[in-house]
Predict the 3D structure of the following.
Amino acid sequence: MEVKRNDTAERCDTSVVLCGIMLDNPVIAASGTFGYGYEFSQIYDINVLGTFSFKGTTLYPRFGNEQPRIAECPAGMLNAVGLQNPGVDAVISRELPLMAKYFHKSAMANVCGFSIEEYVAVAEKLDLEEQVGWIELNISCPNVHGGGAAFGLDPKMAAEVTSAVRRAVKKPLIVKLSPAAADIAAVAAAVEAAGADAVSLINTLPGMRIDLRRRRPLLANEKGGLSGPAIFPIALRMVYDVYKTVSIPIIGMGGVSTAEDVIEMMLAGATAVQVGTANLVNPTACLDIINSLPSVMTKYKINKLSDIIGGAHL
Amino acid sequence: MNKTFTIIKNEKIARATYEMKLLGDVSDITRPGQFVAIKLDGYFLRRPISVCDIYDCSGDGSGVLTLIYKNIGGGTEFMSTLRPGVELDLLTGLGNGYDTKKSGPYPLLIGGGCGVSPLYLLARRLIAEGKHVAVILGFGTAEEVFYEDKFREIGAFVTVTTADGSHGTRGFVTDALPAAGSYTYTYSCGPEPMLRAVYKAAATSGEYSFEERMACGFGVCMGCSCRTVTGYKRICKDGPVLEKEEILWK
């Protein structure tokens, strides 16, 4: 099914600038919910997106966690996929050339690792790819034991991995933060000082479900990451707090499902917004948000979306 | 693939088992063994349900979609309360489905419980292709049996088994295999223990349909990945049907 973009309200300026790269609109499909964009490109022209962050990449191929990996919750879901991906070399040789056929904008490369050396090695390779516009350093995945999340919990460790990757890459470096940190604003400040060009937040929140029949955790990994509308108010509050602390751009995410959510995130301080779990339930979620942005902007008397960034702060 | 369907029938046909018929655009459903994912009010994730049958009545894609589901509580309990006239948001045409071309002249179809459902369209298509179809339908007890007559009406040779012997042959589907005669290919759908038993007992190559917990249903979240001989596969996109030769049991 081909879905066309609604181009009526051209008078509304939805463009934003993210680390020197202009986005037609602030809507970015979030890593892990969009694959490499291929499945979505069969449903709509994904070039309408601001951009998208492709599936988190590690140095070596990973199968991820055992089944089950998914559990439903009221207003959201838990996942414990565990960074399944084919490894950086296969991403570069196989996925990126395919992606070039249906996505013609700069994409965001989500980089994962289990050590500073791994983060650096993966980021260095992806930094050389022309299609990659930004490196998004994922120091917040909750689903891998001894993995990246540990870096995101502590300002000092977050700064260490950020500065190591900073030295290794030329492209804008975004650090994706964990809501599980005791003080996410302190982690944001630490990565800013270490050379991050932007921060994105929040990753999923650690959670779990228990199977009543088996009396065991429902997920094979026991715990998973909570996402979806359930976490939107938490994400919004964290974006608001981080905006007070850092001067680099913030990409807000966590349960964003509507154009109104995008505007709330931007008022809280986000320059751009990622849409994640909504894509899994509604394959045209990003398209629907982009199409309805102009009318929602008109409703709230916004001519230029970038004017409202941080507008909720006194 | 995102379509609005209207319920035209939703009735209990066996113990905890419901048949729902919906009117809508069925044009994306191209093979038996595919599934749809239904958005239900109050439930965050869509429910993946196998396609039992489709009738394209107009030539413009609109037609009747038949689904059979078991009320296991939660979302399916809610589904069982929906009345004709209610509109549902479905993703259709999901998954790879069965390949009827591989069947040879004498395919054997083996289903257990709700796994019987996708075998109906498969049987219909195979028979339309001139093949001689035998089916073994396995259930726990007589009150759970459904579609026995419907398979007979379309010309399939039907054997029913029940675990407690209250209807048909006593035992599991594999207990009916020796009496099934010779067959050229095996198609199977049902609970994993049944698939394992069929895998061991079946004499031919075949295709097996698997279930897994899913989030998206269309191949992007990696929630339902499994290992196979030919690498990692997504049950929702590269499956749910796997060839016998590529299955790696957990």
User: Anything to note?
Assistant: The domain at 16-308 of chain A is CATH 3.20.20.70 (TIM Barrel). Chain A touches chain B through 34 residues (CB under 8 Å).
